[in-house]
Hints:
15 strands, Rossmann fold, Structural Genomics Hypothetical 15.5 Kd Protein In mrcA-pckA Intergenic Region, Chain A, alpha/beta, about 45% helix, Tyrosyl-Transfer RNA Synthetase
Amino acid sequence: MTNVFDTLRERGFIQQTSHEEKLRTLLSEEKITAYVGFDPTSDSLHVGHLLPIMALIHLKRAGHRTIALVGGGTAMIGDPSGRTELRKMMSRETICSNVEAIRHQLERILSRVPGDMLIVNNADWILDLNYISFLREVGSQFSVNRMLTAECFRARLERGLSFIEFNYMLLQAYDFLTLYRKYGCRVQFGGDDQWSNILAGADLIRRLEQAEAYAFTLPLLTTSSGKKMGKTEAGAVWLDPGKTSPYEFYQYWRNCADSDVERLLSLYTFLPMEEVRKLGALRDRAINRAKEILAFEVTRFVHGEEEAKKAQDAARALFASGGSEEAAPISEISGERIAAGVDLSELMNEVGLVKSNSEARRLIDQGGVYINDTRVQDRFRQVTLADVKDGKIVLRKGKKAYHIVKVI
């Protein structure tokens, strides 16, 4: 059986490791417990969180126990890593709401692959900590001089580092210690900006429990254009279908650069590496097939088979119509209703292309509404069977806002 460490290395997940050979041997000879943390800074995870989720799945598939930790406790402070200024403090109510939303997302996605899995909230052991007891047990093990050399703190010293943020490393290290004591967790991983925090936890376990703990980090990914993965001109690409529709999610992957295809297939799908390399070697128009496979596989993993097929059908239909491939969700309408005639403004409002009938009519007056790429000039225009082309009607608002209405 292939060692999961070798799988992660081959697919591009490994950036830094502690005790690499020992960790590799451990993963091949024992069933271990590994964890990664997620900050509840929003009510949804985004594409940036998908890489650690994929790593968890690889470990799970290899027979190891995985823990996804949601930081309901550490979010009360805020992680200074990668930040140039203090994070905005969130209320306890907001954090609790975000934790529940993220917990449900993780359960939905991680349960797609069978295996031993836990989802925990560090608020369960952090919020009721006795501060003096914590300082005596944990704080006494940390050197301030050494902490200040860590990149997460050093980068902040010029602008000022608050004392509350200075506690973050101790609390994350305490998470690792707690998971070791409760579940025998011996491996923590995370983004490369978490390297200092993860090592601090492994060192704390060694000092207090006289046991070996291990760490590895994932690369902080950017696209070939230098843009952070998961960021678009419109903002983050969310895993919540209410914030980023499955179609928009699909299109994010479908529209990746040719030079990014092989790496993204390797990291974000479970296709065999032999197939990944073949798809990545395609050139010119042929590589569009690889992009379709990438988009479908990732969308299926996050949103399920049905939504992935809908998104793929919508993208192909829009491409065939000669329109833009920008975000175009898909809706369905009965043929009987269309045969009777439907007010265009009402239909645009119904499918979410506008917020009101009056907004639709105003856009029509301004020449910004199209049916099948033909500008609409009548504000009271009726949509009928004459508008149906190949079983669909393509509505467009402005230059890029599309919506496909399938007639059933």
